[in-house]
Write a structure and sequence with these properties.
- The chain has 146 residues and is of the alpha+beta class.
- The protein folds into 2 domains: 33 residues; 106 residues, Immunoglobulin-like (Sandwich), CATH 2.60.40.
- The chain has 1 helix and 12 strands, in the order H-E-E-E-E-E-E-E-E-E-E-E-E.
- The strands form 2 sheets. Strands 2, 3, 4, 6, 7, 8, 9, 10, 11 and 12 form a 10-stranded mixed sheet that branches. It has a two-stranded antiparallel ribbon with strand order 1-5.
- A hairpin with a 3-residue loop joins strand 6 and strand 7.
Length: 146
């Protein structure tokens, strides 16, 4: 083997070794780093209209801080002992700030009357190998027949 080829192969082996070490460090960092994609200021979201008719809208306030561009996929459930699940939806409207925001949620006409709270599960894809799940709920509210 000539001297140039040996030097080239040696440089390639060092480059490959550095690349493998950098990849391992990156993957380890992604796996163990503590992520807080959103921070809620209250344990429960404040309900603004505690009595809602079937087919109406529930209004509530979320106080949170978010300082990233991650878009959560939100799963919402109506809970009263029995869980009524809604489809998962991406929610791009959670802005990057620390201001309270008001939200409206449609109360399905088929939801039986009773006392409920909304259980929200926010799923953030924080890096290519990891999701962070944050759960929050509203105060109790009552659904009545219309």
């Amino acid at each position: 083997m000539n001297d140039r080829l040996r030097k080239f192969l040696q440089a390639m082996s060092y480059f490959t070794l550095v690349l493998v070490i950098a990849t391992i460090i990156t993957l380890f960092n992604w796996a163990v780093k503590k992520y807080e994609p959103i921070t809620f200021k209250r344990d429960e979201f404040q309900v603004l209209n505690p009595v809602v008719e079937q087919g109406g809208y529930l209004s509530y306030t979320i106080e949170y801080c978010k300082d990233n561009d991650l878009i959560p996929v939100v799963s919402t459930s109506y809970v009263d002992g029995i869980i009524y699940q809604t489809p998962n939806t991406p929610q791009p409207f959670y802005g990057n700030d620390c201001k309270p925001k008001n939200f409206l949620v449609y109360i399905p006409k088929a939801l039986p009357p009773g006392k409920y709270y909304l259980d929200h599960v926010f799923t953030f894809q924080v890096n290519p190998i990891r999701e962070v799940i944050v759960e929050a709920k509203t105060e109790m509210f009552e659904v009545i027949e219309n």
